[in-house]
Design goal:
Number of strands: 32
Radius of gyration: 38 Å
Number of helices: 13
Largest sheet: 9 strands, mixed
Distance between the termini: 94 Å
Shape: extended
Low-confidence stretches: none
Helix content: 10-25%
């Protein structure tokens, strides 16, 4: 750094003066952004060479641009490939190669891959990538820890040169909220840098799993098939129970699936009433022996009358006008090939507000009777499956397609539609959970009145607190009918925040956490890439030199025959009568002629 600020700065200044005698020279500094002038602080956390060349093209491209001189170590860790941008400029790109190309012994934590969001109680994968140079046969250990406690680890032998390996781990989300984990690769003797041996990751653990109750009149393979399908739906938990034994609380569930209920033996009136009071969605699977008067009173969007104690078979015909959610083409084909469901024989009527996802098809005849229908009444959603036999669909999917994927995805979409939670919070604050330290921390907020109309009259404030207890107070700005706050760049660390406002005498608040992540990109790759700089120069007809040969660039640019001074001619026309000095000159000449002729007797 000292050499760059001293010797290189003087060399570039001399180069600018040498070229300035014949050419116009413009200087810029690049890193994570482009700035005018030369700056040698080297404080940027990222390097984007492509952006520097793109900015050069946007500002200077045209006949007046003769050459580009690019200095740097060739390490580009952000943006697009600079080679393409260099070719687009269309002039020689000369490069000054800085930095050290010596590869020293080092073990590096290249990356840690993980899901940003997980649910409480779930296991989730974490993939750690490790790279090592000149450390063959050394032994190390890769660990994942939280609050100083090791959660998972694996011993590693560096068996090759160079060495690269991916190490998978599995962790369990045991605490809700934003959780910080640290991935570490133990240092070994002879390492040149320890800054790239550890990396923090942040995972948001949500404690809002949707709970689905499968409630049957009696054991049935349909219930098992639905449970198996829902086991693959992340964020959902399933409980299976029989009506005669169920003692749980309705309000504990986000969706209730009733199989052949209500029935004369199990009226379910109390359960259904409590579910209606709390807007809990219901899905009913019809079957023999149900109490259809109680079912019709439920108002699920399908009405069944004239029921006889006979089972009828009907296959699925997909409703192409169904818009509640989308079925993929492979699901449509599979549904229409699945075996028929068995349903009570009777008259099926679709309510005005209901929508059929599938119609009943008997043989080749497509009827107007619903096979699966959904209904939305206010905030509550309901569904009806007109017959039993879903277990046959799941088996058929495996027989025809080699997996249960199509059946499971249909169940997932139906359940997700029914159990969708509507956010009724009148004060909402949004932000990215994790932000790099070189990016601005931005919050947006929405405030709703009692009629759920968005307003932004009241003032909204927010207080952020870092890990040391320091508080950062801010006030939101009004943008349209919402609020916005740009808190700028903050030091790396964890911040908790509390936002407050007041509307019509009612106080509202929201709180959360935001993580400002330290950017380690510049520390991960420390070996200069002079090959990239040489390639940039070779592709564009430029010259690549080291700092001690900077003077050669003056001769290379001066020797470019295409780089010559230009003269410009602009033609313009004006009326002679508008030139007053010519009028007075002519007037003077005419006056002089008249005086001379008069004096000599010519008049």
């Amino acid at each position: 750094t000292a050499a760059i600020r001293g010797t290189l700065a003087a060399s570039l200044d001399q180069l600018s003066r040498d070229l300035g005698d014949r050419y116009t020279v413009s200087a810029m500094t690049y890193g994570q952004e482009v700035r005018n002038g030369l700056h040698f602080e080297q404080e940027d956390a990222l390097t984007d060479i492509g952006q520097a060349l793109r900015e050069t093209y946007d500002r200077f491209s045209g006949p007046d641009l003769g050459a580009v001189i690019l200095t740097g170590d060739g390490i580009s860790n952000r943006g697009r490939d600079p080679r393409l941008e260099a070719l687009r400029i269309g002039v020689p790109v000369h490069t000054i190669a800085l930095g050290d190309t010596t590869v020293r012994p080092d073990i590096t934590l290249k990356a840690v891959e993980h899901n940003r969001i997980n649910f409480l109680g779930n296991e989730f994968p974490v993939l750690v990538r490790v790279e090592a140079r000149f450390l063959k046969d050394a032994r190390t250990r890769v660990t994942l820890s939280q609050d100083g406690k090791e959660l998972a680890g694996r011993d590693l032998v560096i068996s090759s040169e160079p060495f690269f390996q991916e190490i998978p781990f599995t962790l369990k989300a045991e605490r809700p909220g934003l959780q910080r984990f640290t991935a570490t690769v133990r240092s070994v003797a002879g390492e040149v840098s320890l800054a790239n041996n550890a990396m923090d990751i942040h995972i948001e653990v949500l404690d809002d799993r949707q709970k689905v109750l499968l409630l049957g009149a009696a054991p049935h393979p349909d219930l098992g098939s639905l449970r198996l399908a829902l086991d693959g739906l992340e964020g959902y938990g399933t409980e299976l129970a029989m009506a005669a034994e169920f003692t749980g609380q309705v309000e504990d569930y986000d969706l209730i699936i009733l199989h052949q209920l209500p029935s004369p033996k199990h009226g379910m009136s109390s359960l259904l009433q409590r579910a209606a009071e709390r807007n809990i969605p219901i899905c009913v699977i019809l079957g023999q022996g149900m109490d259809f008067n109680a079912f019709n009173a439920l108002g699920s969007g399908v009405r069944v009358t004239g029921v006889r104690n006979i089972a009828a078979d009907a296959q699925a015909a997909v409703n192409k006008d169904f818009t509640a959610f989308t079925l993929e083409s492979d699901q449509v084909k599979a549904l229409e090939r699945f075996p028929p469901l068995q349903m009570p024989m009777g008259q099926y009527e679709l309510g005005r507000s209901a929508s059929a996802m599938l119609f009943q098809r008997v043989g080749a005849v497509r009827t107007a009777y619903p096979l699966i229908a959904v209904l939305q009444q206010g905030e509550r959603r309901m569904a009806t499956i007109s017959g039993e036999g879903l277990w046959r669909w799941r088996i058929s999917d495996m027989q025809q397609n080699g997996s249960h994927s199509r059946f499971d995805r249909v169940v997932h979409k139906l359940v997700q539609y029914l159990a969708l939670k509507v956010n009724k919070n009148r004060f909402r604050v949004q932000h990215e959970a994790e932000i790099a330290e070189n990016d601005a921390v931005v919050f947006t907020a929405e405030l709703y009145n009692a009629s759920y109309e968005r307003v932004n009259g009241p003032e909204v404030t927010i207080a952020m607190e870092d890990e040391d207890g320091r508080e950062y107070p801010y006030a939101f700005s009004r943008v349209g009918d919402t609020y916005r706050l740009d808190a700028g760049r903050l030091p790396a660390g964890n911040y908790s925040w509390l936002a407050r406002t007041e509307l019509d005498g009612e106080r509202f608040s929201a709180n959360g956490e935001v993580v400002v992540r330290k950017v380690m990109t510049e520390q991960i790759t420390t070996v200069a890439d002079h090959a990239l700089l040489a390639d940039l120069a070779a592709r564009t007809g430029g010259l690549s030199v080291t700092p001690d040969r900077i003077g050669e660039l003056t001769d290379a640019i001066a020797g470019n025959e295409d780089l010559v001074a230009r003269s410009y001619v602009h033609s313009s026309f004006s009326d002679l009568i508008s030139l007053r000095w010519i009028f007075f000159v002519l007037l003077a000449l005419l006056t002089a002629e008249w005086v001379l002729r008069r004096r000599n007797g010519a008049y």
